[in-house]
Amino acid sequence: MNKRFVSVAVLAAAISTPTVAQMSVEDQIETRQAAYQFASWNMGKIKAQTVDGSAAFDQNQVAAAAKAIAAVANSGMSVLYSRDSANDRAENTRLKPNFFEEPMKVQEIAVSFVREANALQELAAAGDQAAIARQFAKVGETCKACHDNFRAK
Ligand code: HEC
């Protein structure tokens, strides 16, 4: 391979990584809020179809919704959380500053969010409505754990 090409590719990779970290605080806040809103919309579809029974169970829809939630969980959202984006320093956010004082707790919740969302995706693809409903509740617990600890009222 051409040496010059390699160095340009390496340079491009080196430049492209920090751009993620350099997202403005405003963009971090908007992006994470949008991601959670999107996850919430998809959680609502699964709830309606498997828990409440207020909408007919459509396995394709439920599987797609679970996939979308897992995608949010696995998307590497931690880069959207800079210290300056907490509600003691930034506007229009409910992120509490203790998020940055309790990294072990954040980590534990984030890991369980990913694990339970991945499990929901698998069960939704398999299609057992009762099993999906049970796993939906487990995912919901991880959402709630994070909100109870780190999201202002
Ligand atoms: C790792 C912690 C964490 C997890 C896990 C989490 N959230 Fe949140 N969520 C937050 C924080 C923090 C905010 C506030 C964000 C802000 O205002 O900047 C938030 C905000 C929201 C919002 C409001 C968004 C807006 O428009 O302001 C909704 C809706 C929401 N979360 C739903 C969910 C759902 C549903 C799940 C699970 C499928 C979930 N969240 C999982 C931490 C989390």
Question: Can you walk me through this structure?
Answer:
By secondary structure, the chain is an all-alpha fold. The chain has one domain (24-150): Cytochrome c/b562 (Four Helix Bundle (Hemerythrin (Met), subunit A), Up-down Bundle). The protein contains 5 helices and no strands. Helix 4 (103-126) packs antiparallel against helix 5 (129-150). The longest helix is centred in the N-terminal third of the chain and has 28 residues, at 25-52. The protein is elongated. Heme C (HEC) is lined by residues 29, 32-33, 36-37, 39-40, 43, 69, 93-95, 109-110, 113, 139, 142-143, 146-147, 150-151.
* Number of DSSP strand runs: 0
Helix segment tally: 5
Our measurement of the CA-to-CA distance between the termini, rounded to an integer number of angstroms, reads: 56 Å
Helix content: over 70%
CATH architecture: Up-down Bundle
Annotated CATH topology: Four Helix Bundle (Hemerythrin (Met), subunit A)
Tell me which ligands are bound: heme C
Coarse shape:
elongated
Query: Which regions have little confidence, pLDDT < 50, spanning 5+ residues?
Result: 11-16
**Which sheet architecture does the biggest sheet show?**
none
- Provide the CATH superfamily: Cytochrome c/b562
Please give the domain count. 1
The assembly state of the depicted protein chains is single chain
Q: What would you report as the Rg, rounded to the nearest angstrom?
A: 19 Å
